[in-house]
Specification:
The protein is an alpha+beta fold and 152 residues long. It has one domain (6-148): Nucleoside Triphosphate Pyrophosphohydrolase. 25% of the residues lie in helices and 34% in strands. It contains three helices and seven strands, in the order E-E-E-E-H-E-E-E-H-H. The protein has helices at 44-56, 121-127, 131-148; strands at 6-14, 18-24, 31-32, 34-37, 65-75, 90-100, 113-120. Strands 1, 2, 3, 4, 5, 6 and 7 form a seven-stranded mixed beta sheet that branches. Helix 2 runs antiparallel to helix 3. The longest helix is centred in the C-terminal third of the chain and has 18 residues, at 131-148. It is globular.
């Protein structure tokens, strides 16, 4: 069955200062936040909840997720296009974040990921392989810095 060219990005963080990064298994071995494709009949928020559970073993409800109401459109790298319906060249990605009170231990599936790290903003930006992931990290970090400013 072909993958749907619609996915979620969930930036998991503590106070916009520490970010969970997962290292993909396989030859690519790149680092990313929680991601995953929508399955048939799923909404983006349902996918975000499922992917957080599958990729970290953390159970979260929709109320814990922040939907940034932001969608990224990006070209699917040619090496992965065979996973999608014929002729599909682009993906739509819905951006969410999940704020935790502390850096929680996570469990990942060894067939999907081989490592997980809680890192500061600069390291998360350096590790993230995709521009959409870097933009999501910046968005969360910026929103939290703005929230920390004193109001007049």
């Amino acid at each position: 069955m072909n993958k749907r060219p619609e996915s979620v990005l969930v930036v998991v963080h503590v106070a916009g200062r520490r970010f969970l990064m997962l290292k993909r298994a396989g030859a690519s071995g790149f680092w990313q936040s929680v991601t995953g494709s929508l399955e048939a009949g799923e909404t983006p928020v349902e996918t975000a909840i499922r992917e957080v559970r599958e990729e970290t073993a953390l159970e979260v409800s929709a109320s814990r997720l922040r939907d940034h109401r932001l969608c990224n459109r990006f070209e699917i790298p040619p090496r992965w296009r065979e996973r999608y319906p014929p002729g599909t060249t682009h993906n739509i990605e819905h951006v969410f974040s999940l704020a935790l009170d502390e850096s929680a231990p996570v469990r990942w599936r060894p067939e999907e990921h081989v490592d997980a790290r809680w890192v500061d903003t600069d390291e998360a930006l350096a590790l993230a392989w995709s521009w959409t992931n870097r933009d999501g990290i910046r968005l969360v970090a910026t929103n939290h810095r703005a929230a920390d400013l004193p109001s007049d």
